[in-house]
C-alpha cells in the first residue's frame, strides 16, 4: 500500500481504486470506510470527472498509485478538506517539450476549508516528497488567468509562466513551472511562513 505523505497538519492519503469506485458509484459510506475518513456531503461533486480519469489511469497502470490523486485529510479529525495529486508519473510525453523530466499536479480545497493555508501546505509536502524520494526537480501547474488565489499561491512557491493551452473543461490556462537545482533549499512547510491564500483548484 502506498504510504501517506505528511505535513504539519495533513495526511495526504492515496485514493485507491476501491475508494474511486465507491465515490463514482456515489456510495459515500463505502468510500469513507475504504480510507477511514469523513467526506463532504456533496462528494464527489465537481471532482467526479477527474476521479473517473484517475480510476482509468490506475486500471491501466497500477504503479501510478503513488503519483495520482490523494485526499487532504486533517490529522486528528480524519476529515477530507480537499485533494491534491500529480496527473501522471514524471517525464510524461505531453510535458517533454516544455518541462523535460517534469511532473504536473493540481489541487482543490473545499470551500469551507479555504483561507487556512491547506493548499500551500499540501503542495509543499507533495513537492518535497517528489524531490526527496524520486529526484524530481521540475514541477508544473496549469491555472486559469482569472484564478487569482491559485496564481498568487503559485507565484509564492516560485512558479513562473512558461506557456499556455486551452483545456477542454477550464478553457485558457497558463502553464507555470518551478525548477529546482540540486543545491536549492527546500520550501518551508509551515503555513505561518506566509499569508494563507483561498484556493479553488
Keywords:
8 strands, eight-stranded mixed sheet, 27% helix, Aminopeptidase, 201 residues, disordered C terminus, 25% strand, globular, alpha+beta, 5 helices
Notes on the protein architecture:
A hairpin with a 3-residue loop joins β1 (5-6) and β2. This protein has one domain: 3-Layer(aba) Sandwich (Aminopeptidase). The protein has 201 residues and is of the alpha+beta class. It is globular, with a radius of gyration of 16 Å. It has helices spanning 17-24, 28-35, 48-60, 118-134, 148-156; strands spanning 5-6, 10-14, 70-74, 79-86, 103-109, 138-143, 160-167, 171-179. An eight-stranded mixed sheet has the order 1-2-3-4-5-6-8-7, with helices on one face.
Beta strand count:
8
- The helix/strand order is EEHHHEEEHEHEE
CATH architecture: 3-Layer(aba) Sandwich
The rounded Rg comes to: 16 Å
| Tally of individual domains | 1
Tell me what portion of residues adopts beta-strand conformation.
Answer: 15-25%
Q: How would a textbook summarize the main sheet?
A: 8 strands, mixed
Helix fraction?
A: 25-40%
CATH superfamily: Gcn5-related N-acetyltransferase (GNAT)
Spatial separation of the terminal alpha carbons = 27 Å
Task: Please describe the topology of this protein.
Layout: E1 5-6, E2 10-14, H1 17-24, H2 28-35, H3 48-60, E3 70-74, E4 79-86, E5 103-109, H4 118-134, E6 138-143, H5 148-156, E7 160-167, E8 171-179
Parallel strand pairs: 5-6
Antiparallel strand pairs: 1-2, 2-3, 3-4, 4-5, 6-8, 7-8
Helix pairs in contact: 1-2, 1-3
